[in-house]
Each structure stands twice: as C-alpha cells, then as structure tokens.
Amino acid sequence: MDLSIRGIVKRFGPLTALDSVSLDVPHGTFVCFLGPSGCGKTTLLRVIAGLELADAGEIRLGERDLSRTPARDRNFGVVFQSYSLFPNMSAAKNIAYGLECRGWSKPAIAERVEAMLKLIQLADHAHKLPAQLSGGQQQRVALARAIAPDPSLLLLDEPLSALDAKVREELRTEIRALQRRLGITTIMVTHDQEEAMSMADLVIVMNGGRIEQAGRPVDLYAAPQTTFVANFMGRMNLISVNIAADGRPVFAGMPLTLAGTAQATTRTLGIRPEAVWLLPAGAEGDNIFPATVREVVFLGNITRVAASPDAAPDTRLAIELHGAATAPAIGDAVAVALPAAALRVLT
Ligand SMILES: Nc1ncnc2c1ncn2[C@@H]1O[C@H](COP(=O)(O)OP(=O)(O)OP(=O)(O)O)[C@@H](O)[C@H]1O
Ligand SMILES: [Mg+2]
Questions:
Q1: Whose C-alpha lies nearest to ligand 1, atom 30?
Q2: CB of residue 17 inside a 6 A radius of ligand 1
Q3: Which one of 39, 53, 157, 206 would you pick to mutate in the ligand 1 pocket, going by the greatest count of ligand atoms within 8 A of its CB?
Q4: Is residue 37 in contact with ligand 1, taking CB distance under 6 Å?
Q5: Are 317 and 306 in contact (CB under 8 A)?
Q6: 50 lines ligand 1 (CB under 6 A)
Q7: C-alpha count within 13 angstroms, C-beta hemisphere, residue 99
Q8: Which ligand is nearest to the CA of 35?
Q9: What CATH number has the domain spanning 235-346?
Q10: Is 205 within 8 Å of 34 (Cβ atoms)?
Q11: Strand order of the sheet with strand 254-255?
C-alpha cells in the first residue's frame, strides 16, 4: 500500500514545525528524512505514527484515511534513537510484548519470537536483559520488536545515532537487507547524509519545516536544485557569476558555457569537486581557466586539491583527484576546466 501525505501543517504555538508537507511513498520503499536539527523530521514521523496530531492535511495508506485511525490501531512499527526497550524484560519478552497486546496465542508468539531472534542473529541472547546487551544488540532487539507484529509501516527515528561508527555501518547494511527481504515500507529519520545516501531508495531533504527536494540519492547528488541540498549532500563548489547582457553567466572574466538549454537564472552555479578537471598550464577552450594550486592534501585513495583561477584569486575551487600520481604541487601554474555538463544552476 502506498503512503500519501498531503499538505501537512503542524504548529507548536507560534512555531510552524511543518509547513504544508506533501509526499508520496510507494509500497516497499525505504525513505530517509534528511535535514539539520530542528527542521521537522521527528515531528513529521510522529504525525505519520499518529503520536502527534496535525493542524491540517491528510495522510492515507492505500485507501485508509489515517487521520481517523488512532495510533494504536495503525499497526506501525516504531523504533526511536534511545534504547526504548523495557529494562526489566528479557530480549525475548520485549519482542513478545507487542504480540501479547495484539492477542496472539502463546504458541504463535513463541514461534514468532524465535524467528525474530534468529533474524537479528541474537538467538543465543534471548534471556538477557537490555542492560546485558551492547548498544547495537539492543537496537536490533528494538527493531525485532517493531517488525514482529508484521506492521504495515516501519518508522525509525535516528535508530543508529547512539552507536559507534563501526556498529552503525554494520547495522545500516543489516537493516537495509532485512527491509528488502520483508518488503516493508520504511521511513527512517537521520541527519547523516552518508546514512541517507547509502540506505534510501528515496531521500526527502527537509529544511525549516518544508521539503527542500525529494529524489533518489543519485539524482539529488547529480542534480541538486538548491545550494542547501548541494551542500547537504556531499561537497559542492559554489561559483558566483555575473549575468552578461546576452544572458550568459560570466566567471573570472570569461563567459561560461552551460549544457543544453540550461539558463543561468541565478548568480550561483555549482560543480562537484570530482567533476572539475585539472589540466596543464596553457590549456585552452570552453570553461577553461588559468589557475594556481593553493593546497594539496593526499588522502590515500583521493587527493584533494584547491586551486584559484588567476582572474578570480579569491575563489578556491576544490578538486578531487583519484590517487596521487597526477597530483600537482602547491604554487604550480595549472588550468582548471569546469565541464558544461557538470555545472548546476542553484537557487
Ligand atoms: N512538543 C513540542 N513543543 C514545542 N515545540 C516543539 C515540540 N516538538 C518539536 N518542537 C519544535 O519543532 C521544530 C521541529 O522539531 P523536530 O523534533 O521535528 O526536529 P528534528 O528535525 O527531528 O530535529 P533533530 O535532528 O534535532 O532531532 C523544532 O523547532 C522543535 O523545537
Ligand atoms: Mg528528531
């Protein structure tokens, strides 16, 4: 069943936490809400869960209008950031709890709990209390508890943020594999762009209670529409241009060529560091500028270079080169190329 969110508004007193949010989530999709602290991610998740009442708007799951369904009847699985397991119950009891509430029979519960523990690879830890489990293990139990009743939607609010980097990466892969296997529509809140990019089918970038841009990770990375999205998803060189009388953008004293029918409607263009070309001094052509190398940082698999066009010495272009073989030295005279196909117009 597809989830459809239309015009959701949520106010807390004078503050508008959600400002007319609309969104479609196809069945079986893994969605990430991504954005800085306070942008409304948790609020939107809580509205979907039914834990918070929207001031306006509509949420539908398939044919069902959720605004008429209380939280407990929605059959959604929810996992929060902090370990929300019952501290006085074993892992197995924690997983069983929701099934007992739903009136499952004893044998059905036993069977389900066993299957869940196996699924999260904690079969040997069934009788441990949360305090006897590691952080990663506790979040796995919380996940098992959420998916045990076969929810129609899985809602995760920064479930990995309290874990250390290595466990976090393992769990990312595990959660995604589990979600694919069960085919369960999942929404995960995160403010970690790498987490969103590596896990999601669909990323919803939020800013100030609004959706800034939504799309597949590759599309958001390749074609961000705003400076905010460009900076939030990876690194982006921002280039300030003047617009010439003929409409062409001018940078460092030279008109820039854009791809196809693209028009410089704003004065900011963006280009990813890996898309900038470093050429020998004297190279000429469209979008090629004489430049000087300012900085070289060797990072093993890549080398980060900063170079300034000689006609725009205050602009520092970040350039990423693979490996070290081709790296220049600080002070080298070079040329930088800004390929038209990689230049983005940002609002
Ligand atoms: N119960 C509440 N009462 C008043 N204001 C609230 C309440 N819940 C959230 N807010 C406000 O609404 C805005 C959005 O909060 P929300 O928790 O959704 O942000 P978030 O994107 O989840 O941030 P974070 O990444 O820090 O968790 C914030 O300005 C917050 O202070
Ligand atoms: Mg939050």
A1: 38
A2: yes
A3: 39
A4: yes
A5: yes
A6: no
A7: 23
A8: 1
A9: 2.40.50.100
A10: yes
A11: 242-243, 249-251, 254-255
**Which of 57, 55, 59, 56 lies closest to 76, judged by CA?**
59
Pocket mutation for ligand 1, best pick of 8, 12, 37, 188 (most atoms within 8 Å of C-beta) = 12
**pLDDT, tens digit (0-9, with 9 covering 90-100), for 280-338:** 999 999 999 999 999 999 988 899 999 999 999 999 999 999 876 778 999 999 999 99
> pLDDT of 145-167, one tens digit each?
999 998 999 999 998 887 888 88
DSSP tag of 342:
G
Q: Is the pLDDT of residue 245 over 90?
A: no
Q: What is the pLDDT of residues 100-150, one digit of tens each?
A: 988 999 999 999 999 999 888 899 999 999 999 988 889 889 989 999 998
pLDDT band at 272 (very low <50, low <70, confident <90, very high): very high
Q: Tell me if residue 118 falls in helix, strand or coil.
A: helix
CB atoms within 10 A of CB 68: 7
For residue 23, count other CB atoms closer than 10 A to its CB. 19
**One-letter amino acid identity for 291?**
A
Query: Ligand 1 atom 12: the closest Cα is on which residue?
Result: 17
209 Cα–ligand 1 center, Å:
10
- Encoded tokens for 94: 């924690």
Please state the pTM of the whole predicted model. Answer: 0.88
Locate 119 and state its tokens: 């699924």
Chain Cα centroid distance, residue 227: 16
**Which of the ligands is closest to the CA of residue 44?**
1
Does 10 contact ligand 1 (Cβ within 6 A)? no
d(CA 263, CA 345): 8
Task: State which CATH number among 3.30.70.260, 3.50.30.10, 3.40.50.300, 3.10.20.90 fits the domain covering 3-231.
Answer: 3.40.50.300
Domain residue spans of the chain: 3-231, 235-346
From the CA of 204, the nearest ligand is 1
**pLDDT recorded at residue 83:** 67
Q: Give the distance (Å) from ligand 1 centre to CA of residue 41.
A: 8
Other CB atoms within 10 Å distance of the CB of residue 28: 15
Predicted confidence at residue 156, as pLDDT, reads 95
